Fold each of these.
Amino acid sequence: MIGCRLAADIGGTFTDIVLEMPHGFVSEKVLTTPQAPEQGVLTGVRQALARARVTPEAIEVAIHGATLATNAIIERRGARTALIATQGFRDTLEFAFGHRFDQYDLLMQRPEPLAPRPLRFEAPERIGADGSVLLSLDEAAVRALAKQLRDSKIESAAICYMHAYRNPAHEARTRDILTEELPGLYISVSHEICPEIREYERASTTVANAYVQPLIASYLGRLSEGLLAMGIKAPLLMIMSSGSLTSVETARKYPIRLVESGPAGGAILGQHVARQVGANRAIALDMGGTTAKIVLLNEYQPRHARMMEVARVHRFRAGSGLPLRIPVIDLIEIGAGGGSLASVDSLGRIVVGPRSAGASPGPACYSLGGKEPAITDADLLLGKLDPENFAAGTMRLNEARAREAIDMHVAAAIRTDAPTAAAGIVEIVDENMANATRVHASDHGDEIESRTLIATGGAAPLHAGRIARKLGIDRLVIPVGAGVGSAHGFLRAPVAYEAVASHVMSLKSFNLQAINALFARLRAEAHDIVNLGVGYGDIVERRFADMRYRGQGHDLQVELPVRDYGPGDGESLARLFDEAYLRVYNRTIPGLSVEALTWTLELSRAPPQSPGEQTSLRVVHGVAKPSGQRSVFDADLGARVDAGVYHRNALQPGAVFTGPALIIEDQTTTFAPSAFDCAVSEHGHLILTRRSGA
Amino acid sequence: MNEGFERIRKQVMWDRLLSLVEEQARTLMRVAFSTVVREAGDLSAGVFNARGEMLAQAVTGTPGHVNSMARSVKHFIAAFPLQTMREGDAYVTNDPWKGTGHLFDFTVVSPAFCKGKLVAIFAATAHVADIGGNGPSPDSRDVYAEGLFIPLMPLVVAGQMNAQLIQIARANSREPDKLEGDIHALVASNETGAAQLRRMMNEYGLSDIEELSAHILDSTDRSMREAIAALPKGRWTSAMRIDGFDEPIDFVATLTIDDENIYVDFAGSSPMSRHGVNCPMCYADAYTTFGVKCIVAPDLAHNHAVLSRIHISAPEGCILNAPSPAPVTARAIIGQMLPDTVFGCFDKARAGLAPAEGTAASWTLRLAADPGLTGHRGGTRFTAQSFQSGGMGAHPLGDGLAATPFPSGVRAIAVEITEALTPLVFWKKELRQDSGGAGRMRGGMGQSIEVGSREDAPFAVFARFERVENPARGRAGGGDGAAGVVRLKSGAVLASKGLHIVPAGDRLSLEMPGGGGYGNPETRDPVAVQQDVRNGYISADAAHNVYKVAMNQRGEVDMAATKTMRELGETRPE
């Protein structure tokens, strides 16, 4: 018997609360309270408890995710942060990758570093690449620095020395001295925050951690107190960008790992659904109001990465943001959501996003003051949305306003009528998502066809059918509760932690002792963190190494066996690399030596099963009858068709019907194009399958 | 289906072409072995119609292949007529004059078939790992010494790789596995593009792409004509001098803009060099076209319609049109200077169009230790290439970027990675104060790098540094960027070109050039000057003496005193 679990997801507009009980779910949506985000969470929790008639004591664990860290960086609302670098290297942050991410734009600008130059200090010291001390730390100079930090009113400091991932002694000593001199100062050290080779990424990550730390620490303190005051004594777990859970204590130390945890929730829900419907190779598409997130799943696993970019400043372009080297779910995010705005460029081409109408003023059809056409306006004009039946009937969509916005900003510029322009806008945004998916897949050598597309988020179910056609995909899944994905995903997340260390080593001279000792150290570090005393499963260990052919610039993450390594394992690791290389690149290069750069150990504990997993719903096979008809534009056919209208909550597992169809539920609407057959699975998921030959 | 939606479909298909060449490029980057392909993006990928006119080129890639790869496809069609091409064929060359300018660049061209009919051509170019000969050294006296030369020839025939050609290539390369891998990568890259094109044609029920091709080229041409119409008409000449190898090299560019076309001619430029820095015409064309496009139509997608309105020429025998068998391997150092040269012409045509000069040629560190080089037996042998750059020129609307390559798109390699693979130690890599040319908009700063060895052993540096004698010049009253300095830490100044040995215990010290400033520095916003002083980008002395900004003891601008100082000073015309 499991107790109740609580999940809270703070988004830009709404805070979602899901209360999972032994016999089902209750969910609440309250407005986000940006000034004191914990207030929204506490209000929502109170409402959910009252509605479910559950006492605070019944809650066994509370899980939380928030975009606070991301927003603090994007809006530059973090702490006054100093960087202390090795003498001669304070400009690492400013050099960035030393390249132009936009070839033709002579006015390209990089993002400003989070620690401006006057707040970047240097300490005389130097560690070599082999960990040896080339220049001892000048402790007197560090003490003198403390005074400068005080005078500069520093709230948080990042220490990032060259090769500290290999020998942390100087960073640790510097922290000790500064703590003595400036008790209470927040300090982030690179060998803890990002113990990996490559000085820019490490410094950027460490400084970002320092930048958000005071804000997150105080927020988490207030939230914990608030929950306690309400009588919730259960442990509070935080969801990280890797899609796994950790304690508040760890989150306070590594707040940067909380960045982009919402999208991670969507990916975990996708993974969960993929297992239920037996889709071992899938694409999870999460399309909300502002952006679309796309994740590829292989053998039910989302690809993980240890690099992401936050706060892109230049048209969402890769390279224009701040790099963070933290464990993340490898997703791509593009500016395509229900609120994305459409316009026409100087070439007479329709352009959609990344500008978004957001929730306010919102799309023109919301009648909240929005004048420019958004994707939702175009969907409305194409008949995909029922103006009377949007968001559970809480909002009436105004078709005339949508038409006017599209006429004025798009149709006139390309000399056509509003319905045609609307079809064009939707076609372009669908094409953008399909193209982003293809390019992302080709970066990893992944095939796309034969995958299942799992669509979550308010806007995805409207668009997934057309995107599937563009990607050559034949099977779509619209999960139960597709419209509120992330918070549900939090409940499916494991408790896990990845500990990493860089140690560059040729596998020809594989140093057993060093690697065995390194993994023992990583295991000890991770073990403390996942040992949370909550009702999650047994600890499972996985190991990985980032390897490459010596001289090649591209690392490949390879999973390693979990055991102490012995003689001959240098060769067996090299073989594992060859196998992985073959999978991705279809070839190996005999004779080249293999080197490993970074070693990762992950400990994880699976979440308890949810009620939905334990018992399948009762399946009653039968053909569902539509409750009405709507005329909808089917882009596959380039024409309007009469679609049957169905209400999702009236559809029983086992129900079947054929496209074209519109399936309406409170938070979203699914459009099944003409070529698809529809069925409701035993778990209640909507499954769309392309008819053969269609 | 109405006519409006038909037009939108064409736009979608155009987007798809742009996306599929991006996939083509990413595949190449992922599969290739050559370091510069992956790290520096020294590659190109594109799709062409059956007449060999380029329809789309990947954004990922180098300016050095702009237009040159596109021209190369025409050479292939001339050598191997379309009616002789079969499904599963591919062709190859590394001809510097019919490809992209030196033997390292392999271009592979593959016809794409749909339902048995040739519908398009894909081309991809990459800088391969090694092609034998003297490698990257500019010391060869002719192209024959620079490595293996493969004329235009079949590489894959009906799906079968030309095994003899691969054997010959392997036998001539120091890195046979990597070279073979790079050639396979080029073929795979074109196959990726062709497969996606077929998918699109099936999706839209197309039997050819002629209508789409016409749509792309017509609408681009319309925009290109509009862009040219907005430019002043006339003829302007501008010259730029660089240090060169044994003697300075002069570039003289004459820009002509008429109602519909842009012409750049390099008559008057220096003759060919005896070093391998000469440009085949195609390569001079590539970098000049890139510079023109940055000014005229930076947002326009790259295709035949853009290229066919930009015409680049140079007299045969000049360093920018060196005929075979001139040595050309290090032609990038010259080619990278051409955007700055042509910017000079645009600035004369209309002030405010073009930025000031920048470092242009990147300051790549080529370091090595080997008994044959240093005469020292102890110590670790290594070779290392570390991409580094000085500053960009200031733009009329913004400061130049510090320590950033332009026009090259190279990405720097982490110092820690270089140090982990070699005994090298970087003791300093920081912004160089006062190196950005003063101006209303400030030139980008250069950087100072100091590098030594962890071992008690000497190492060699292959110096190929520019802008040591001839700094980047400012425009419109802006000051010049600081010149570069190459020396030992112990003091001795080293020549900017050639092989030097850094003795055991000593360090190489590089002060990289800054970009030129734009506009009179005395008109720079005093608050921006104050910020530059706080950031240490400029010294307090420069703020006072050059920018004529008065500051109080707290480092704040004294507006009244500044006004007085600026009014009393000599006013330079902007």
Note: The mean pLDDT of chain A is 90.
Amino acid sequence: MQSNAALEYDYSVAKLFTYTAILFGLVGMLLGTLIAAQMAFPELNYLFGQYGTFSRLRPLHTNVVIYGFTVSGVFATFYYSAQRVLKVSMAESKFIMFVGKLQFGLYLIAATGMVVTLLLGITTTKEYAQMEWPLDILIVLIWVLWGVAMFALIGIRREKALYISMWYYIACFLGVAMLYLFNNMEVPTYFASGGIGSMWHSVSMYSGTNDALVQWWWGHNAVAFVFTVPIVAMIYYFLPKESGQAVYSYKLSLLSFWGLMFVYLWAGSHHLLWSTVPDWMQTMGSVFSVVLILPSWGSAINMLLTMKGEWNQLTENPLIKFMVLASTFYMLSTLEGPIQAIKSVNAIAHFTDWIPGHVHDGVLGWVAFMIMAALFHMAPRMFKREIYSRKLIEAQFWIQTTAVVLYFTSMWIAGITQGMMWRAVDEYGNLMYSFIDTVTVLHPYYAIRALAGVLYVTGFVMFAYNMIKTMTSSKVLTEEPQFKSPMA
Amino acid sequence: MFHWLEKNPFFFAVGVFLVIAFAGLVEILPNFAEASRPVVGLKPYTVLQLAGKNVYMKDQCIACHSQLIRPFKAETDRYGQYSLSGEYAYDRPFLWGSKRTGPDLHRVGNYRTTEWHENHMWDPTSVVPGSIMPAYKHMFSNAADIATAYAEAVTVKNVFHTPYGDDIKAGKKAWEAYRPKVLAEAKKIAANMKNKDVKDAVNAGKVPEIVALIAYLNSLGSSRYEANKVK
């Protein structure tokens, strides 16, 4: 192999995951909008019989957006950018290509299985770990295949030093592997009882308070290692690439990375404040949540300062807009989280709509914005065509930004209203409101949130349309663009 | 050191793993034995109640209802005594939930009745005007999976030493022998219900989901251990 010949990267696996990211994004966000609307207009619960109630669809929504949309985005960007930062092509190794495609095939089977079983109500109910044991085994296999592909690519790399994005992808792989295995330890009842009942059912290895601890150690860090770590990997690659700017500070990257790795895991118990887990664990969760602001803001500030002196690009390039706003929402979300993790605030915020509000300024404003920007950046390079429409991206940006703002402001108000009403007492010290009073008062906010959902999905449809047009009928490029993605 | 790590992926990965695993070792492991001890007198769920718990899981009641009463006056006034760790000793999985779109249910058995649940699950607004909870009419016709619930009881007894009686043991024969006990318990619940289809089904030897669910909901609260306390 000539070392000075230009590498021809192979994007076949990256393309496959791009398709599923678009598909699952659309399905997951439509489901989210439907269940948001159900909370404002309960008649919508009866569209699909027993399969259409809020309670059945809510876990389906979370799982499809996490494991369908986000994880597809993670794999797509990984199979795209890992080749480039390691300076190897997937085409150089039949083995790696095979592993990548096998991983995609199994992923598709698991994702389909996930949708079907959750609709049927086959679930462990542990949040973001709802899938039952046969699917868990399949997911472990998929994850191992990803690890094999990752380390095989690293093994044959030409660029000896690992770029920052690779650090984060490796951490995503290791962190999820460890947490997923421990949280999904379960015993299938069919085999333990001599063949009675359903094959699918299992019981958790842990009970009660312990189960809660392990679950939220996982649940919180699923947020860390799926919604944060690989998304940071993306922004470290795509923002410098799209803007043509070098990353602002290597030292800040180091501090943020190792800081995030060390601090994140401790914060899991902030989901269990005022519960029956030991008090010292709760306090640890609170304290480390506040410390977590440092490495989170470190990455975000590093990215914003990368644009130093180049802020004009913000008006010239809509993809930069998406990434800069994503970075900003990341800062908002990682400040809001620690605030909610303070025990006195948590006493009001926990169990209310402020929590989904917090989650969504993170996932809509940070995760989804970053994934869409990354896929837009990849499209002209993978499909050798320019992006179909710049106007459409601009419109999408403003529609979706409005949606995110409507979403979190309405849920902030709803959550705090709810939290205050639950504890309100009259002059004699009696509770002022019955529970239903605290539900009916939220109707306008639920309606606004549903509207936010409609807007966000509208933006996503524009994204999907733009991507499909780019793949099929946009102007063909003769040369690979270096920095700014070409768009009509 | 960091430059060296970045050129040696294996050691880099080992380093990352150690750094992220550390918190788990310190924070998760130490209290395992302590926290899983049951409160004095706590009885495990009956097979019918387990079947009901599985209905609760299948239809994801957990999406809107918590089972965790926090130690605040506003919560104990509304729901009863705050939750104790030992009350959850037989809960696999834990069902604390993370969102209260509807009220907490950890002690719902202390203050709601079979009749109330029957009306509520058929049409929530009939007992709670303004409720946004969907009706769960399909629970009145779907059969509860009592065989799987029995399998679960056998599993937790054999694997985790949950104190069930000798009549709960592995194998299909043992299950056939046990089945009438589940039906007898279901009949007691159905006796307080008015839905004719449900009553007919129970008399014909079937257990509709709603019957199992109500058995479970009635068990939530202090009834599982109050009566057995050493006086």
Note: The mean pLDDT of chain A is 96.
Amino acid sequence: MSVARKRPLRGGGLMRLKGLVHKEFLQIVRDPSSIAIAFVMPIFLLVLFGYGVSLDADHVPVALVAEAPSPDTADFFASLESSHYFAPLHARTLAAAEQALREGRVNAIVHLRANFAEQLRRSDGAPIQVIVNGVDANTARLTQGYIEGAWGNWLARRATGQGQALATPVQLEQRVWFNSELRSRNYLVPGLVAIIMTLIGTLLTALVMAREWERGTLEALLVTPASMTEILLGKIIAYFVLGTGGMLLTVGLAVGLFGVPLRGAFWLLWVCASLFLLAALGMGLAISAVARNQFVAGQVAIIGTFLPAFLLSGFIFDIDSMPAVVQGITHVIVARYFVSIVQTLFLAGDVWSVVLPNALALLLMAAIFLGITWRKSRKRLE
Amino acid sequence: MLIRLLALIHKEFLALLKDPRSRMVLIVPPMIQLLVFGYAATFDLKDISYALYNEDRGTASRELVAAFDGAPAFHRVSTLHAEGEIAPLVDKRAVLVVLHIGPRFSADLQSRGSAPVQVIVDGRNSNTAMIALNYVRAIVDDFNRAWIAAHGLPAPPARLETRAWFNPNLESRWFFIPGIIGMLTLVTTMLVTALTVAREREQGTFDQLLVTPLRPGEILLGKALPGFIIGMVQGTAILLIATLWFKVPLLGSLSALYAGLALFLLSGVGAGLLISSLAVTQQQGLLGAFLFMVPAVILSGFATPIANMPTVVQTITLIDPLRYFLVILRKVFLEGAGFDVLTGQLWPMAVIGLVSLSLASWLFRHRLY
């Protein structure tokens, strides 16, 4: 085995490397699944999710119940009916509306009691009963907010109709920076780019080293003048080129198809994405080198990549709201750094104070994973 | 025949559990993941960092600021003295919210009865931004109510009285933890099934299996049962963690929940074996597992409601078994549902399971490679 390290000619290194990269490309072309991972998977996933994933509720089904219909109840309901946020459904009794809520046909009930018109003219005001289905707490809050908005509009309209000023002492003027229409797709699509690239990078390499160990082809390579470093470098270069293709495709789709604004510099995104790709490929290679068997490597890839990247990267759930221990765990998730970078580069622009630390973290993660791979692969020789 | 089958199941269990690392992978991560994800998955903001830029010196603004400082979810990280300080702070994500009170706030509030307050929110994560805005609005509403009462202003002619059913405090953790149970169960079935046939194909042992007296149906049963049994054991363990550790209320019928788990495992194992029998190499099996698992999770309604999706995508979700299982989990846990409400969710999973299992067993002999 010592042959592996005694290279006869130092100058032949570049040629050997070219040969190794060529060999990897031949393997990639012969098993269509690698091409599918790099090019088909990103298109399929991004199109499906870009259209499918949204947190913006529209046409929320709401049951409207007036125990004694009158011009006043009709006037209030009109404020809900005219809004595109609601799909109103008139129910005759509260019991019928509650049944609809239980069966999931409506998300909320707005209930006006029989004495609504009469109480409206008294000094303490009329209660409007609202019941929301709280199972999906986020949608429930959103629905509640929409109903409050409709209520506020109705109060204002009614006050001006009677020639009075509405008593709202502190009036909120809200400014949402970077995403003024609060379009959830604008932040979900860049996040999806990060998730999809985690999968591409890791899947491309997770089985590669394990396969060569299992089939004994790595030993065959090692008796050639090529060193382990060169073999690893050959793999990284080949899959890096493939992964870059996939990355350009996803970024292109995010901007071209989904109209997410790219406010930062493209070259900066490219640099950061390359660092991220290196870290993701490194993670795949490390899994492969540690597991040494395709079956276990595949299992680790299934467990260790998708769900952690999906839940712990800040893609959907705010990291600052997690308990300190869990926040600590998120630091080992490679996608976390890239999600932060893409959300900033797409929506805010080149904010160096966000990009730089995260890019350095990516570099560090790439170095750690590739170091593990290198060490684990060498150890087998001794 | 029974002995043959038992021997096969024994062999499949050995193949899964013989390797200590493989054993580890099956048992430990799901428990840890439930604990970590259970704490991570929440839309409730606990620590909103905000900056205050108060140009007003009156008492009213001091009262408003006190309301924010007293709110447990808000945490003031800096106090600004110039408008130019706002942008750099928001840009580098040091604060999520900036509260800007103009110089005439208290005076206007006293003399004209109303005054504006500006709130700036970082919209890079629009969902977090929306939730933070709701929190701000709630504090301002409380302030307004107190102000109206204290200054004898006329109350509005109607007020909202809101109640939430099934989850009175709108804790989003109660919504997500049942979802995580479904996701982890799906991941386990993929782990156990997606690579098995592909591995045997790659190593050539599947051909040996095919020339034994075992019929494809028996091979299928041998491959499916370990996934089913491991899924059941693990499902039970994570159900226990969800109820005992996270204290998510389990109100409905346990038998309906287990019927849902069994049918979900059937469909998950079916999908996994179908992927595995289509794949010739383990690399292809792994790709197939992801091409099924990732859309199954993202389009299941776990984090983003199915009702928000366009109609075409909503139709695609009909073949996603996780979609049905999540409804069952949430309805049984929080709404106290039983079989009567859930039949509409149970039979589609049975159909998905039977179709995928029969296809897989047909492919055992007919897949050419």
Note: Residues 1-9 of chain A have pLDDT under 50 and may be disordered.
Amino acid sequence: MSKYGSRSAFDLEWIERWARRVNEDRVLPKLSRFFNARFVLGIDDTDFLLEVRRGKIEKISEGLEPSDMGYEFALRAPSSAWGKFSQKMPPPMFNDIWAMAHPLHKQLKIEGNTLTFWQNMRAMHWMLSLMREV
Amino acid sequence: MNKHDPIVGRYVYINCQGKSYRTYYEEAGEGIPMVCLHTAGADGRQYRHQMCDPDFTANFRVIAFDLPRHGKSIPPDGWHLEEDEYKLTTAFYSEFIQEFCRALDLVKPVVMGQSMGGNICLELALRHENDYSALISLEGCDHSPGWWIDPLHHPHIHGGEAVATSVFGLMAPDSPDEYRWETFWYYAQGGPGIFKGDLYYYSVDSDYRDKVHKISGKVPIYFLTGEYDFACTPEMTMRTAEKVKNSECIIFGGGHFPTSEDPDKFKEVVSPVLKKIIQNDPERRGGNTRDWSVNGATRGSGNRSEKRPEGRRTIDL
């Protein structure tokens, strides 16, 4: 095992554990109370649709369906990248969504209405960092 | 008895490209003058730890100025009538450094800059090699693409929070929280459009890939880059250093803001460089000599397995 450690595979249950950790966080509400969005967390070929209202993740769905009527933005990366990102001590170039999304590295795609993403980036950043506590 | 930092701040008027700039700078120490250049969108506070550390100030007069429009250096008169957005250019940046050194009567100072301050060291080596005794390029390389983007200055996006969040991941996750979030704060305080405007220099107006081999080597250049820097990766710095004569390259276990995100680690990493500079310039050093230690680089990678279930499941929380 590397010095950065490792974790088990992602699945809906893992996403749920992360979502519950997000919802119980004591600091996030300060950053996320205006965060309302439906966004996709893409891991390999699976899209998880997350519905966020006032900073709380209210619903997570595995896969997209036409009746979802779309979403606002998506963060998609291979499980290998999310796996490194979510380690307790993430390795270089995987410790941050911008590190993974930077044109030099191209591990993460940020798609859709990126304005919503940018507007809520600080809250998003905090939420995603909680993956390291799942 | 109140505790004070040894830092003293003043304002000096710098004339550059036909305008006068009321420029804030701080300094501490005595000895070899060392002009410190902050990163894009930040200010000289990034060097506060070094200016308070006797291991720096015993041999160096450490000086950090705020570029115009940064920190406590106000924009030039009439900035509100400018017809184009703010863009830092190679010409202005390098001339301003030159004029600042002239204004303070600094003779052959050391310049230490990080990020865009590290990249401008290449310009100084190319065009003004006789004016400096050594260059320390922190997180510097010959080309840093991809950062001049509109969301960093957009009326629908909170500039301070977006800018600061954008750079947070450039820091090493094991750098102390206290200093990482202080660095975040510097960024959150930047003026509107200033970070983006600086990145015009960083990502657009400076491309030294076809120039660095022309650096003569007359002035030594020390490149130091942290392994978590995803804007200027260790590979980018090493590739640059390989082309620059009389240069050294040190890769260490840190991030893009070494002076402010982890000052203790930075001291360990830069101390051998400072020792060499002192040895090459014994007449000008301060009264004391310090015992410098060396820090090694660390590296590693992670991995994980993957699994994907079939069918759609939904959870209400």
Note: Strands of chain A lie at 37-43, 46-53, 56-62, 73-77, 109-112.
